[in-house]
Design brief:
Length: 344
Amino acid sequence: MTRETILITGASGFIATHVVNAFLRAGYAVRGTVRSEEKAAKVHRTFSEYSERLSFVIVPDIAQPYAFDEAVQGVVGVIHTACPFKAEVEDKERDLLQPSVLGTFNILNSIQKYAPQVRRVVETSSFAGMLDISKGNWPGHVYSEADWNPMTYAEATNANTPDIATYCAGKAMAERAAWDFMARENPPFDLVTICPPCVYGPNANATADLVKLNTSSAEIYQLMSPMSKPSDPLPPPVVWVWVDVRDVAEAHLKAFEVPEAGGQRFLVSAGNHSSQKIADILRDHVAEVQDRVPLGKPHSGMGGREVYGVDASKSEKVLGLRYHPLEETVVDAARAFLRLEQVV
């Protein structure tokens, strides 16, 4: 039996590895893009049981024209997760905005030219593309698919704008570029965008490195690493809402498979959280690290802060998502980190 092939870009990433797993388990053949043969080999080892259904194309730079021309040929769907992120950059436009926007345009353009059989593209966008940083904690506001990050290109490239704010603006610009492409070109495929906030959960790929964790994973690990101690202050999370990486992967699979998802944008989130809640879970449920974890003000929840909320009901209704509880997510993430500590 010939299996349908799905292209998953950035296949060595934290989220993408779980997306690859979701599609392989669902019976698809997966073609992944990675930046080097070394990454391809490591991801292949992660999924050795599916080796006959997993292949790779090397794409060193997604911002280069024609980067995806080869990769898209022969696939029926594309899951575009690739988007470089650096906490500090030399050039905001070159290092943050262009890779995000051009990478999105390049893959849609390649699909239109070389992959007429593609039915649907699912793009990994971000809650960052919804977040209005100027509003701060914005008590009383409930973010939904109707919200867009309002930062302009001029503001995003301003030298005084923090790099993280530029990254957030770039996610919005990349997603808008995708929807603009669809409206302008009217291609034969449709588009779905998935917008997760802080993504937590177990690192499941062979490229995971405790020294170079993705930003959201590092948020949890810094609270339990051998370098942390009970007297350390608790840092605020990047944003006050979260989701389990396995639920994000399921969202991508359902976004491709569910007919009604076509042409829609989905906020995927399990709700609010805080560093205090994560620290409490680590201390109460992961005995190996309880003496490392900062105390803060135990079991004070959100610490008396009033912050924005989220409405992810659309993802539950249309995609059928059921979200992991924070306790399970944090414990599973911690167990994965502890396994990685044994490897070092």
